[in-house]
Automatic annotation (TrEMBL), chains A, B, C:
Lineage: Eukaryota, Metazoa, Spiralia, Gnathifera, Rotifera
SUPFAM superfamilies attached to this UniProt entry: DNA clamp
Segments passing through the bilayer: none
Keywords: DNA replication, DNA-binding, Nucleus
Broad class of the protein's primary localization: nucleus
Protein name as annotated: DNA sliding clamp PCNA
General function of this protein: This protein is an auxiliary protein of DNA polymerase delta and is involved in the control of eukaryotic DNA replication by increasing the polymerase's processivity during elongation of the leading strand.
Proliferating cell nuclear antigen PCNA C-terminal domain location: 127-200, 201-241
């Protein structure tokens, strides 16, 4: 029997939103430590690694390690039926071929349950080596999201340059080329102010970019609840692009 | 001469929105009692029955019974040209082949008139038998709208189960199956609170579902003005679906 | 060397929005007086004439007259990368084949630069004769925008009739025909109130329509900053439509 109850159910909705466009299907591995998911996107450019810690749930019971093979588009559709203030419970029997999602309104006057078939997925768990990164950039997630969107107008890849003075994001393409420079101090002190602008439902206010030469960039969003307590993380590992004639 | 003047013109806009996706064209039957419209949708699953009472209008004059054959998509487009705070007047001569809509801004500084050609429609007025329903569910219209939207993710039909404890809406399909249970008390006491959530422009805060075994479900929205006074209703009669192997 | 710095950068974004759907490419002619642009739309119905006065910029330097041939869709995409509160600088060398846009956040913690290739455009500057118009209508730009949108439901041309009592806009088509009448006083006194309704980002609250029989209608929006100071204008000259059997 597996059962996990999350009072701030909107967190699961946001986590789902953050991966559903990248992954079609994935296994949620449930153990005493929590629920985790690891999968390559279909174009094999990004590795998603997601962790929801068991002590981040109000109730968490996992009698036996389970691997739930899930069509993420379907799970996302079902989670959209939960209100933002609903309590979400995930439940599965040990040998189940289905998982049940239960949504309770805060006043318990509306209780919904959705049963979804599980999939048999061949998954190989990739070992992610511990890496000492040369440079770690922490910045408001809204700012990062905006920079990516702005530069995507120019091209489909971005060069991130980290110096002592700050960070520079650059892109080029048919339209022309562009650079966005962030002064270092700004990103450290004023982050909360800047965040308000753009992301409607960020996983967290802060993103960290960890990078070294010739090693995948790690983009990490902490999953925090309203009180700011850590519930886990979503990490994206992005392989560096090999350009033929990059200056 | 027919002339009907509605100070809260937005009501007519909302009524139009509530039927225009279901019906292509229909006759508005105008008499001393008011304006009424009755028509089957093109798939012959739903019967729409709409009533705007003559005493719900500020001025109402109907010298002779009239039947105005109207393309509802066209009428809807024209009504979108009225502001929400406009006063709307509908006017037609007794033998007219056109109807005129007049929109006056509250301060009378902008007056618009739109003339629309009428259609010749063969309409048979269906007698709707008075029915004693076994069960009548009253609930916030926003809640009902949301339940239908949520369950439409799973399938295109819904089973409504009414017991002493409350109501259960169920659907199933390829994705899985789902149930939404509403406790009885909740729907009676807290309706206004719950309504705020989802419907941008409901005809009214309340919907009532009247049902009996093997009889069309009647879904009724009262048309109320800002003061809550009754101006009429929109009723949808939905034939029960005959499932081949429904459990 | 050409360099023009606009502290209220959102003005340039709005100006761009106001022409980009009408024109594909155009020359910005830069001189000591300011930046101006004049071009026919691709269907040769509208002439756009735009002026940004040099003294409307905080810094303005133009060593030699320049003509910057620009793909307006590209420029619009780049300007979308500027925040609404960014300071925008346009810079070009005298013999440059590229123009640079620099966006600075108000606190200088984010500086972006975008370089865009210039185009070689054959442009003939049309002389616009000074015209004494028989009738000039000033009205809230939101009201005008709304009238055009409403009447476009009926047909693709509109007749503007100007009398001592006010203005009448008329259109007709398959759906029927419509007239919108504005009383004269209303448009003079209450303009600010009416404007709020519809235009998300108007160039200015006021539009003026200048017209005479058989002469292009001139639709003028002043470009004003937040303090209401004039920075220039955007004018659209629209050739009157010759109807075959217009009543």
């Amino acid at each position: 029997m597996f059962e996990a109850r999350l009072v701030e159910g909107s967190l699961l909705k946001k986590v789902m939103e953050s991966i559903k466009d990248l992954l079609n299907e994935a296994s949620w591995d449930c153990s005493g430590n929590g629920m985790c998911l690891q999968a390559m996107d279909s174009s094999h450019v990004a590795l998603v690694s997601l962790m929801l810690k068991s002590d981040g749930f109000e109730n968490y019971r996992c009698d036996r390690n389970l691997s739930l093979g899930i069509n993420l588009a379907s799970m996302s559709k079902i989670l959209k039926c939960a209100s933002n203030d609903d309590i979400i419970t995930i439940r599965a029997d040990d040998d189940a071929d289905a998982v049940t999602f239960i949504f309770e309104s805060p006043k318990q006057d509306r209780v919904s349950d959705y049963e979804m078939k599980l999939m048999n997925l061949d998954t190989e768990h990739l070992g992610i080596p511990d890496t000492e990164y040369a440079c770690i950039i922490k910045m408001p997630s809204g700012e990062f999201s905006r920079i990516c969107r702005d530069l995507s107008v120019l091209g489909d890849s971005v060069i991130i340059c980290c110096t002592k003075d700050g960070v520079r994001f650059s892109a080029k393409g048919d339209l022309g080329n562009g650079n966005i420079k962030l002064a270092q101090s700004a990103n450290v002190d004023k982050e909360d102010e800047a965040v308000v602008v753009d992301m409607p439902a960020p996983l967290s206010n802060q993103v960290s970019l960890s990078m070294s030469e010739d090693v995948p960039l790690m983009v990490e969003y902490k999953i925090n609840d309203k009180e700011g307590d850590s519930k886990g993380y979503v990490r994206y590992y992005l392989a560096p692009k090999i350009e033929d004639s990059e200056s």
